[in-house]
Design brief:
The structure is a homodimer. Helix content of chain A is 55%, strand content 10%. Chain A has helices at residues 11-19, 23-31, 46-61, 80-88, 95-115, 118-129, 273-282, 286-310, 331-362, 369-400, 402-405, 412-419, 429-444, 446-449, 455-466, 474-481, 497-519, 527-536, 538-566, 571-591, 593-598, 604-622, 625-632, 636-639, 647-664, 672-688, and strands spanning 135-138, 154-158, 163-167, 175-178, 187-196, 199-209, 222-226, 239-243, 246-249, 259-260, 266-267, 314-317, 324-326, 670-671. The two termini of chain A are 47 Å apart. Chain A contains 26 helices and 14 strands. By secondary structure, chain A is α+β, with helices and mostly antiparallel strands. In chain A, strands 1, 2, 3, 5, 6 and 9 form a six-stranded mixed β-sheet that branches. Chain A has a three-stranded antiparallel β-sheet with strand order 4-8-7, with no helix packed on it. A two-stranded antiparallel sheet of chain A has the order 10-11. Chains A and B meet through strand 6, strand 12, helix 9, helix 10 and helix 11 of A and strand 6, strand 12, helix 9, helix 10 and helix 11 of B.
């Protein structure tokens, strides 16, 4: 590697930026790798993998992680962000263990914690957190994933014996993709339409025993099915559940937001059924928060492997005939990997802000509607971009390692298969970005707040309407920087932070204003026509949301850089972070350069500088690739990739030594190409003479 | 689905365009699915999958496919393109069977056929083609993949017993990733540096027995290792081979391009060692040709599954409260899938042109240097873009199917894992595009032809230098359309074929001219400095190659459209192809819209039309999504995806029937949301009153 651009940084200081405020819990999660149950066998046998994964989840309990989010009164620390931070690091062990633990502690126990009462906590939450009561989270149905409000499962109250009767009225209402459902789950929290006294009160959650003990026989009326093999997460026993007149006591309704009295009278503290529904769902935002951070972990792991290999692997000679170049010195290799490094930094520091929002709300410090809504929007948008980034990053890393990247022993292909589903579960990314977009719109224009456009629009619309206090905060940023677009802008350096900020935010503002202009007339159209108008801008909506989320992530990176700049003696680290921020910002601008030119935000001459500036930033950043790997904080046990641990460098040294020794021997064969060149030169000379 | 834009097309006619000139052999390949050995078990057990795959390869022999490329004198049909077309369709059965067959017939037998003599054909080719002699293709080493000239394995001639001594001098020279090496291979064609009389004559190919019978014990001096689990292609027994003083008779050298006499004298018809090397490698172009077509098959399969599901699956209500919308009606769903449909059409028809080039050269009709070079460039560039497209397409399709897409039973995740390696084997895509770029350069400027820039440049440079007759044909197209860039251009419709053509070609020309300008001075620089200059434009080189290849594919699509337009009574089919061509062309322009504006090829007002025009084309094309699925020519046995065969529509009908019947009952529960709305309206009225 060229040392020309290398900064003298302390990887630990960079690592501290990445690890954020809950670093301590993060390290606990990272150290789980030392457990003998942390890693699954290299086998394709589902039964074996599932048992190993269960053992991993049980081993995890010993770390104390699962108790962190419980209230102090119930033996926990009320530390929600810390729990999530630790949880996210489990990707370094096994995503299967992580997600099975997520199902058990985050979803199953989480639903009991957030939707249940104290008595229910005593009865089910405690054994769930101790891993003594394994459960499934039965929300999604075959027929309805993103549109939870439309699920078909019913829970009809029968006052005669004070029970709810749970039913799967048709095949599409079968609960689907549930971890713990195929084998291990003893119970499930089942989301169903609560019907009492002839009224459907919408989706509520019920505690329903499904098996006679752990991994036992299904209880009467409960039919589990096994989802079998998947694209990854092979250690999780995903399956289906259907219910045929399964009766549970009235007190099995998790009744925090809605209850049914013995006589069948329904009551709720939240009058609006829509608001009640979204409040219940909102308590489950933790899943999205933790997947955002998990995407960061996965991308770091992949880059760690590919960059370490790229710093050793040599291929083709360059200026020097005898020594081949390391891959990381090739411009294209830098161009492939460095923008992904910048993205993972942006995602990591933005995630730390998300964790803070999360702790404020769930720790109880600021449980206001506004705080909850900001949290939900951040979680939805961040999760979408980070998990997509993670997949792209893993794939690019796998390709950057060539054939070696395709070998299971080098980790990347397994990681890809596991992470693949993160982009569609806990909220399909495409739907999540529409949710963000709708909130941007309702923040932008009051009359769009209550617009009922049908379709996905209605789903999102309802949510946004319930969240009238929501503020994206974007408009304010926009106003303060509005005046930066003077004619002089184009003469500023493209690496100026203010220019990047202005361009990224301005793009969001213009996109949102354009969309609002198109959608405003739809508010007074008949539903079918309005839905058509909405559908005609769906793509733009999603792009606007992406632009907004990426602008927020840029802000987080900019904040993190300024934070480091303030510390004395951290100049080189601050410079590295500036390179990362600039690469992130300019890459975003390059991705949409046509837009910036078309809207007059970038002169053509300045636009032409973007590409070469990115090239140069990639080269500079690559000079610290080794430090960046170190800053990720992972060891060989986390990476578990043969090619990342020096074997390649050793082999190449051996080959070089061989040739050096061989050349020194008298009988080392002459290369025919040299003889050919000599002969041709002689012939040429003879001809001339 | 909206019928507004639907064209009345005959899917068979569209299918004929896709299937091309070797449709007959393509159907033979497609019908292999009827063999009882065509599909592997849904298991993760490597041993079982490998045996099933071997059985599949043997079953394949009964179809007669493997004999197609043999000369008529050896019982074949000299039908190289037909063989490849049939082979490509095997992706619909199992990629594992396809690639193991490719190793056996294309690589192992192919090397014997193209590099060996008649006697060697009798001895090894015939049993190889009959599947009685299984073999590995031992070219790649741990230390060298793309840079084949630098492999370390040696074959040193010993006149005392007239043998070659094969050696692996150091660990990095171990042959790696070889199908058939871990278990089934009885022999290997081994690429090694041929050394005789103290001269290294470069890489040659040797027939080397490695096992005592099929799946038998390794022969003395041969050490096989097993690569174990991979990201996909689990049915193939990839492995490593190393050699310790393994002696093979002199006559085991496949001696078509270079031979060694009993006394050790080397001889070759090709004087230049560089040219000889590339001629030998050139005979193996078939692998790249067939992967190009395999990428088409895989992408078609994935789109077939996702579109069939998208036409059934309903989610969220739109204009009508009672009936949910099908996914394919959502703009974003169209925007996700339709550009990929356009790409697979472009890749398919371009591939047919590649097959024609291939048949011309290998059938012997035009075996000129120029034809070979054109073929090699096409194969390299097409393969790179098509295989990347296939991966992106499969992933997008998997996400478009949500959680169902992640289930093994819906095929997409398995297909992704299998196809993943296609982007780095038979030539790493990144290296292949550099090869294309260097040829563009040497065609553009004579002085760049012999430039020695070191590194990858040198590798590519040598190849290009050897190919002085190479003509991309691009400059000619460029000249004829040069005058289209009048000020009036921007007033033409963006869907004009001439405008698309001019923009796509002009971009390539400008990029190549820019690069030539940067690289020209490097020709007179010292090697290290020159290598640095070359490296500084590596990314641009790759982008130029991509632009060139995509322009060629656009031409192929344009040709195919005109072909259909000429046929009477095919108007609707021609219109569909025009939509596809325009969507492909405009998507390419949108991908690089900043470039086109910056270089003054597109006015800003016209540029703003591109996005909405693409939106509209996607919607129009989606109206024929069902016909497009039909045109792919696959049945349920090829797709093997539960969600693609009507089960989803059936479930949704069942759910709709349930609700219709339930609503007709007196005791159907009232929705609380309606009661809430009524109450609110009443309260409002009361307040007013």
């Amino acid at each position: 590697m060229s040392k020309k651009h290398q900064l003298s940084v302390d990887p630990a200081r960079i690592g501290a930026v990445l690890d954020g405020r809950w670093a301590e819990q993060r390290y606990i999660g990272r150290s789980f790798i030392d457990s003998e149950h942390a890693v699954l066998s290299e086998t394709g046998d589902l039964e074996q993998l599932r048992e190993e994964t269960l053992a991993g989840v049980k081993a995890l309990i010993d770390t104390g992680i699962s108790g962190l989010p419980l209230p102090e009164s119930e033996g926990g620390q009320n530390n929600h962000a810390g729990y999530v931070a630790a949880f996210e690091e489990l990707v370094t062990a096994e995503p299967s263990i992580q997600i099975k633990a997520g199902v058990q502690f985050g979803l199953f126990a989480g639903a009991i914690q957030h939707l249940g009462n104290a008595e229910q906590h005593d009865k089910w939450l405690k054994p769930a957190v101790r891993g003594e009561l394994l459960g499934a989270f039965a929300m999604t149905e075959i027929g309805h994933g993103s549109d939870v409000a439309s699920i078909g499962t019913t829970a009809t109250y029968d006052p005669s014996d004070e029970t709810f009767v749970i039913n799967t009225p048709f095949r599409a209402a079968t609960k689907e993709y549930l971890g713990n459902a195929a084998v291990h789950g003893e119970a499930a929290v089942v989301f169903a339409q609560l019907i009492t006294n002839g009224v459907n009160h919408g989706v509520h959650c019920f505690f329903v025993p499904i098996r006679d003990g752990a991994a036992g026989e299904p209880l009467p009326g409960v039919t589990p099915e096994d989802d079998g093999r998947k694209g990854g997460l092979l250690g999780i026993d995903n399956g289906r559940l259907s219910f045929d007149n399964v009766r549970v006591p009235r007190t099995n309704l998790l009744n925090r937001y809605g209850d049914v009295a013995a006589d069948g009278t329904y009551s709720s503290d939240i009058e609006s059924p829509g608001r009640r529904f979204f409040t219940m769902l909102g308590t489950l935002v933790q899943g999205r928060v933790s997947l955002d951070g998990s995407g960061v972990t996965a991308a770091k792991l992949a880059l760690d492997i590919a960059m370490r290999y790229g710093l050793q692997r040599r291929q083709f000679t360059g200026g020097d005939d005898a020594v081949e170049e390391v891959l990381m010195d090739y411009q294209q290799h830098q161009r492939r990997l460095m923008p992904l490094v910048a993205r993972v930094f942006a995602n990591a520091v933005a995630h730390d802000q998300l964790l803070e929002s999360f702790q404020l709300v769930f720790g109880g410090e600021d449980d206001s509607d506004e705080a909850r809504q900001r949290l939900e929007t951040q979680a939805a948008g961040f999760k979408a971009i980070t998990t997509w980034d993670a997949l792209c990053t893993i794939q690019e890393c796998r390709e950057a390692c060539g054939g070696a990247g395709y070998m299971w022993e080098n980790r990347l292909v397994g990681l890809y298969g596991d992470l693949d589903v993160y982009v569609t579960f806990e909220g399909d990314n495409t739907v999540l970005l529409q949710l963000v977009a709708k909130r941007l719109l309702s923040d932008y224009a009051a009359e769009l707040k209550d617009i009922d456009l049908g379709g996905v629009a209605r789903y999102i619309g309802t949510q946004a309407a319930e969240h009238s206090l929501y503020r994206s905060g974007l408009a304010n940023v926009g106003r303060t920087i509005g005046d930066i677009f003077t004619p002089a802008l184009n003469n500023k350096r493209v690496r100026s932070g203010h220019v990047q900020q202005a361009m990224l935010h301005n793009r969001v503002e213009v996109m949102v204003a354009d969309l609002a202009g198109t959608l405003r007339p739809a508010a007074s159209m008949p539903p079918a026509k309005a839905a058509e108008v909405f559908n005609s801008v769906q793509h733009q909506l999603i792009e606007a949301a992406r632009a907004y989320i990426e602008a927020l992530k840029w802000e987080a990176l900019n904040d993190a850089m300024h934070e480091v700049q303030k510390r004395s003696g951290h100049d080189e680290e601050a410079k590295l972070l500036r390179r990362i921020r600039d690469l992130y910002g300019l890459s975003l601008i390059e991705d949409n350069i046509g837009w910036h030119i078309m809207y007059g935000r970038l002169s053509m001459s300045r636009a032409r500088q973007i590409g070469p500036t990115i090239d140069s930033l990639c080269t500079k950043l690559a000079a610290n690739a080794g430090d960046i790997c170190e800053s990720f904080g992972y060891g060989p046990k986390h990476r578990r990739a043969t090619i990342a641990e020096g074997i390649e460098a050793k082999r190449q040294q051996e080959a070089m030594d061989y040739y050096r020794n061989a050349r020194a021997q008298r009988d080392f064969p002459v290369d025919e190409r040299h003889l050919y060149k000599q002969r041709k030169a002689k012939e040429k000379k003879a001809k001339r003479g």
